Amino acid sequence: MHDHKLFPRVQTLDELRKGVLLSGICKCYGEVINEGATAIPRLPVWQQWLKQHHQNILSQQRCLQS
To answer: What superkingdom does the record give (predicted)?
Structure first.
């Protein structure tokens, strides 16, 4: 599985800690992901959430293909 990349519109981690809404584009599927920064205070946690997001999508796709 290739590495999933997230390109957040939030410029700095300081902005992230202040509770700025984090918006990113899922490059693999071209969808926009929005998540409140208060729910994801640290970037590694956000990246982990993104991985789970992709796993959910892949599971749904496998169900549709079967």
So the answer is: Eukaryota
Indicate the burial class of 16 (C-beta count within 10 angstroms; 0-12, 13-18, 19 or more): buried
Cα-Cα-Cα-Cα dihedral sign, residues 3, 12, 30, 50: positive
Distance CA 59, CA 10 (A): 29
Reported confidence tier of residue 3, pLDDT bands at 50, 70, 90: very low
Which uninterrupted H or E stretch holds 53?
Answer: helix 43-65
The residue ranking higher by pLDDT, 54 or 31, is: 54
Q: Which two tokens stand for residue 18?
A: 């202040």
